[in-house]
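Hey, I was hoping to borrow your eyes for a little while. There's a protein on my desk that I can't quite get my head around. The fold is given in discrete form, as structure tokens running alongside the sequence. I'd be grateful if you could look everything over and explain what you see. Here's the protein in full, and shout if anything looks odd to you:
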Amino acid sequence: MKLRMLAGVSALVIAGGLSACSGGSGSSGDLADGTTTIDVWLMRDSISAQFQKEFVKGFEAAHPHIKVKVQIQEWDGIGNKVTAALASNDAPDVIETGNTQVAQFAQSGGLLDLSDKVDELGGSNWLKGLAEPGAYDGKQYGIPYYAANRVVIYRTDLFKKAGVDPAAIKTRDQWIAATKKLNSSGSQGIYLPGQMWYALAGFIWDEGGDLATRTGGTWKGTLDTPQARRGMDFYKKLQALGKGPKDSDEAEPPQAEVMAKGQVAQIISTPGGANVVTQNNPDLKGKLGFFPIPGKTAARPGSVFIGGSDLVIPAASGKQDAAFTFVKDLTGDAWQRKLAAAMSYVPNKTTLADAVASDPGASAMAVGAAVGRATPNTPGWAAVEAKNPIKDYMTAVLTGGNAKAEAAKSSDAITAAMKGGS
């Protein structure tokens, strides 16, 4: 799933040999000289034009019998477009998809089962937040591509003024204590809008709860469990240490712009949010830092929702061997290290975390990514996000509603949405 402000760059369609093709694999095929051309759909803003150009050039040099045509796709409406492509005889050969979308596409039977390739691709070291949602009914369809997750972006000057050492914040209790100290002298300890449900999910996971679980073949919303309600209790305590609205999310108003305008000590965001802050207030350049979302104990960082992408191969592709070669190279260690350096992403394997060691934002992401998770792995989850009763639940609790009753109401709505969306 795409996260807002993953990197703050624009992936442009490149002219010439990398220009966007007009259709799927039917628009190009095996040439007379034995060369195979594969059509690849990549998502806008996932990678820069420069990295795309560098990879394709390197790939074609390493595999002179394979040529690559890239078509940049828009995130809006991509679900329906991919579903239609998979059902046709004109599907592309490789598709980048949000990690939480794989189950939706696999359910249709339109994806190639890559379970027998997991060992070859180093699957034992994949980030679970990318690998697990890339599987469906015990089979691996999505190959982890890159990850991004939320961290804490903080004002170094406000922390120094308050006498708070960010390196000493390792637990939730320490985070609350530090935020209380920062929430003085006209400053907000943290700007946390009331409906940032991905952050809530992490707190729920830390408590041993979940948004929904499956018993047998039936999915059921579980915000009403004691564990999930403890996660909401912590969210309420943290949210109260700032002036974030209780009835909107981080996009309304854009929280990075709020941080740029006022004395906000912290926000929860992907590191790319720092770029937006400084673009809106250049005076804050050099005054922003990052640390992982703290966990319940110092031994383990806080759980985070892993956003990012997987790569899939349509079952209808007539060039599956060439497509797999493309996927293997792009998700292999060498290009993953280059991707991490170019885009400040978390690589797809825990063993590659050192690739972002020199990048403060990305290295903070990597800490959380190692224990990151994804939303419930069911095609019906898309219907939950479309209606999003979790946001309504959060606002109700933050504005004084009965927490237990509201949790039960939201759990029932999640159950109904998943049942209708499956």
The chain is about 35% helix and 15% strand.
